[in-house]
Amino acid sequence: MRPYPPLLLIAAAALAAGCQGTKKAAAPRDNSAAIALLQTVNDNAQSCWMKSRDKAFRAYRVIPELDTRVGKPRILLVDAKAAQGLPVYVIEAEGTPARLSAYGPLASDPVAARINGDLRRWSSGKTGCA
Within its chain, how far is the Cα of 31 from the centroid? Predict the structure, then answer.
């Protein structure tokens, strides 16, 4: 077996590097309307669900993920005993004017009707607990 000259190896490496696709960073979005709406939702959720010690929400924690340059800002409801686990409910906002969407396993639970009612009220500009 004959060894390849170093120059040939360098040229092959350069060709291989040039053939690999480059990933473009996703362009930042203007999420300001969505973030503002979710901040209102988060403030009210913290007051009405968490700090009030509402029995319906004792098993959950609210985790806001609002500081996003790419993707949709969101609020997660997670199991209080497994806060690092998968969310049980996700509340997202996007667009101008901002629109909310929510989904997750908790959507089939009776507390989802309460959550959705609160979300409708808060997204229409009203604040406070029901």
Answer: 12
Residue 76 is inside which H or E element, if any? strand 74-79
Question: 53 lies in which domain range?
Answer: 32-123
Q: Among all chains, which residue has been given the structure tokens 């362009």?
A: 27
Residue of 92, 85, 87 whose CA lies nearest to 38? 92
Return the number of other C-beta atoms located less than 10 Å from residue 115's C-beta.
21
Q: How many domains is the chain built from? A: 1
Q: Which residue has the higher pLDDT, 104 or 7?
A: 104
Do the domain assignments include residue 13?
no
On the question of a cis peptide bond just before residue 5, with omega within 30 degrees of 0, the verdict is no
pLDDT at 72: 85
Q: Are 109 and 96 in contact (CB under 8 A)?
A: no
Q: At what angle do helices 111-123 and 32-45 cross, to 10 degrees?
A: 130
Residue 2 DSSP code: P
How far apart CA 26 and CA 125 sit, in angstroms, is: 31
Strand pairing class (74-79; 89-94): antiparallel
Residue 68 has pLDDT above 90, yes or no: no
